[in-house]
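User: quick one
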Amino acid sequence: MKTTRTGARRLAIGGRCVVVMAGMSALAGCVQIDTPDKPIEINLNINIRQEVVYRLDGDAKKLIEQNSEIF
Amino acid sequence: MGNDKMRMTKWKPTGLALAAIATTAAVAFAVPSAMAQRDPAYAAARAAGQVGEQPDGYLGFATTPTPAIRALVQDLNIKRKAAYTASAQSTGSTVEQFAFTSGCNLIAQTKPGEKYQTPGGAWKTRDASPPERDARCP
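Assistant: Done. Structure below.
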């Protein structure tokens, strides 16, 4: 009798845990991100990085100055 | 009389030398300024807003060009590409990277009244305010 009551309590706790787990997984399901329906765009300008532009800036200025007839 | 003749013969070479120096100096000064100047037709098309600077470092047409202007711009763009290619090689970059960096500078250097293309592709007339440039421009 005693053992069965304990067993029932254990089952009840276990059951609550399952409910909590299920609730958490349901919440986790809310923040799931779906695959985008739009095709992934690849920016062709990706090979022009800002750091590269900054590095070349001085040389570009020099070129423009020395060839002012074409700029 | 004899004395005068002597003086003349002495002065003549000096005068010639001075004239030669003056001519050389004039040529030396005239040549670089002539080379550095824009073609008058290009300068006029630029000032009229028919031709403008694109973000990619090349010239473009803000309005439908005449065949003469189209040819002029194509010629300049070919020359620009050659210059970008040489600089890209010496700096270890791609032609597109060097041309783009030059485009940033060329748009920044436009004078009020001249045309430039925004990153969105629209043609704008440069005014006193800073031009609309790509976020990567220094």
